[in-house]
Automatic annotation (TrEMBL):
It comes from the Bacteria. Involved in the gluconeogenesis. Catalyzes stereospecifically the conversion of dihydroxyacetone phosphate (DHAP) to D-glyceraldehyde-3-phosphate (G3P). It catalyses: L-erythrulose 1-phosphate = D-erythrulose 4-phosphate; D-glyceraldehyde 3-phosphate = dihydroxyacetone phosphate. Belongs to the triosephosphate isomerase family. InterPro entries: Aldolase_TIM, TIM_sf, TrioseP_Isoase_bac/euk, Triosephosphate_isomerase, Triosephosphate_isomerase_AS. PROSITE patterns: TIM_1, TIM_2. It holds the Pfam family TIM. HAMAP family: TIM_B. This is Triosephosphate isomerase. Keywords: Cytoplasm, Gluconeogenesis, Glycolysis, Isomerase. GO terms for biological process: gluconeogenesis; glyceraldehyde-3-phosphate biosynthetic process; glycerol catabolic process; glycolytic process. Substrate binds at residues 9-11, 169, 209, 230-231.
């Protein structure tokens, strides 16, 4: 049975002030039946780890380099994330694919390094509106999935997040049928590539305008094992009811 996962991606948001919300979230969901992961900006990794030390929240990075160390100004390695106390990393977010020209091959190399360092990788996939309107969403997702995910997946080291680019920060969400179609497809592809046991153990998250108001409906969809939440993960007031909806699902 897959354990549900509520993941928050703070993106380039948050200061030490935000740790108060993290602390409140930890108290509100102590002993939760679902996994909770918060990925703050790199500047807050170490204090965030400190803040959640007596709660059940785990802390993750938002990206890592594919090398262990070296002359890569501004980058962070998977080993450095581990050293800071992180246990997971988001990779291949569409914002990084766009802003930093990351390809699926780049994402796979980063994921390989992160998994070797012992991190759980949350690998993001998603189509643009143009691609969806051309009705080849599953082709896009299939290609991103096979190219971005390295060999050697397990239920512990891999989480896949389906984040339609047009749904991120827009207030738009796909219909439950559209989400279900992509999630069922990803499940089948993972089972085919890694075998039924591993394929069924990898958690699949939906991301894109998840809010307290739509969370329960999204969590009822087949093969949705949780959410990767952006804006609504920044405050305990908004993220806590989303976690509660997942706990109740
Ligand atoms: O990109 C996202 C999470 O990684 C989703 O962002 P929003 O929840 O703000 O739409």
């Amino acid at each position: 049975m897959r354990r549900k996962l509520a993941a928050g991606n703070w993106k380039m948001n948050g200061t030490t002030q935000s740790l108060k919300d993290l602390s409140a979230l930890g108290s509100a969901h102590k002993g939760s039946g679902v996994d909770i992961l918060i990925c703050p900006p790199a500047t807050l990794l170490a204090p965030a780890v400190q803040t959640v030390s007596r709660s059940d929240i785990r802390i993750g990075g938002q990206d890592c380099h594919d090398q262990t160390n070296g002359a890569h100004t501004g980058d962070i390695s998977a080993e450095m994330l581990v050293d800071a106390g992180a246990s997971a990393v988001i990779l291949g977010h569409s914002e990084r694919r766009a802003d930093h020209h990351e390809t699926s091959e780049d994402v796979r190399a980063k994921a390989k390094a992160a998994q070797a360092a012992g991190l759980m990788t949350v690998i993001c996939l998603g189509e643009s509106l143009l691609q969806r309107e051309a009705t080849n969403t599953l082709d896009i997702i299939g290609a991103q999935l096979s190219l971005s995910v390295p060999d050697g997946a397990t239920g512990e080291n891999l989480v896949v997040a389906y984040e339609p680019i047009w749904a991120i920060g827009s207030g738009l969400t796909p219909t439950p049928d559209q989400i279900g179609e992509v999630h069922d497809f990803m499940r089948t592809r993972l089972e085919r590539r890694f075998g039924a046991g591993v394929g069924r153990s990898v958690r699949l998250l939906y991301g894109g305008s998840v809010k307290p108001e739509n969370a329960a409906e999204i969590f009822a969809i087949s093969n949705v094992d949780g959410a990767l939440v952006g804006g609504a993960s920044l405050s305990a007031k908004d993220f806590s009811p989303i976690i509660s909806a997942l706990e109740a699902s």
